[in-house]
Amino acid sequence: MYLVSLVYASTRCSDWKDKDIYQILSASGINNAKSAITGALCFNGDYFLQCLEGDRRAVNELYRKIQNDHRHRDVILLHYAEMTHRSFENWQMLYVPESKMSQSHILRYSGRQQFNPYEMSGASALQLCRELAFSLPEDDSKL
Prior knowledge:
Elements: E1 3-12, H1 19-35, E2 38-43, E3 47-55, H2 56-67, E4 72-82, E5 94-97, H3 103-110, H4 122-135
Parallel strand pairs: 2-5
Antiparallel strand pairs: 1-3, 1-4, 2-3
């Protein structure tokens, strides 16, 4: 088994409904557990930044599904690499809403005031997700 990390950015679709994020998170919790995928999802109401970890085949399959998901558009791969250990092993899918993203985190990893993962390098995007994951209080980071 080859363990990989994949990071992508996308934009919500034009007919987005607030309930869509809950559907994504609910399905992620169930499906990721079955596929042994872990990760983090940052979402500010417009842009998604997601890190996925797991077996190469399972992660690639999930990424193809995301590319074809009508709730996402402009899906861009930011980072893909083999890894020796997981960064998000405690989360089937950690959710980081905009309210949990501090201005200092965003500025440190993007050089911008506003969260826009398209303007970040893949390495910076991955580091932002890692830092956000471990800066959240225990109760806020469960999913």
